[in-house]
Amino acid sequence: MGCQIEKAKIDQTIAFHGHRCPGLMIGIRAAEVALQRLGDMKGKDVVAIVETDMCGVDAIQFLTGCTFGKGNLIHKDLGKIAFNFYDRDRNISFRLLFVSDIASDLISELRSLMKENEAEKMTEGDEDWIQRLRNELEERYMAIDLEKMFLVTDPPWPVPKPAKILQSLRCETCGEMTMESRTRRFDGKVLCLPCFEKVEQKI
């Protein structure tokens, strides 16, 4: 069964992201799974851990309400198209791993054309074909059954602890206020991470 999110909401998600693309559609479908399993997340203690910084994360933010600013959207830079969701109130958690095999033929062809583009061998016909491939990817992602699109497993991490408001300390090198948990002590001084990295000695 294809995507069940109403078209108006999909259009709003595209507007939020700034353009439509295959990656955003992956995020829309991942958010769809989360909404099916957890229901309306408004007012619920839900956390998302995303293992990628690709376009689809914007769909997770817009459709689930999990955001960096509220502290309930956490990015782990693992380079995997995977999304973890936790409902603290009901002790529900799951991980969605995108199954890339569902579009390996289109992705392979698209990558080949993109490499030609990097080598400045792209023709106008290639550009048109790339757009057609991207459109076909979007259509496939929005039409495929969710059971075929994502592998559902338990998350590899425990439920994240609620965000805490911490004290800010002044870096004794640059003078900028920095969250306490992001400071280091070096030679008796409190330093922010950039200033610490400048003076830390590594072999």
Instruction: Please estimate the helix content.
Output: 40-55%
Number of strand segments: 9
Which shape, going by the Cα principal axes? globular
With strands numbered from the N-terminus, the spatial order across the biggest sheet is 2-1-3-4-5
Q: Which CATH top level class of the largest domain fits?
A: Alpha Beta
Q: Could you give the order of the helices and strands?
A: HHEHEEEHHHEEEEEH
Distance between the termini: 56 Å
Low-confidence stretches: none
CATH second-level architecture of the largest domain: 2-Layer Sandwich
Share of residues in strands: 15-25%
The CATH topology of the largest domain is 60s Ribosomal Protein L30, Chain: A
Q: What is the CA-based Rg, rounded?
A: 21 Å
Q: What structural class do the secondary elements suggest?
A: alpha+beta
**How can the largest sheet be summarized?**
5 strands, mixed
Domain module count: 2
Number of H/I helices: 7
Task: Tell me, rounded to a whole number, the average pLDDT.
Answer: 91
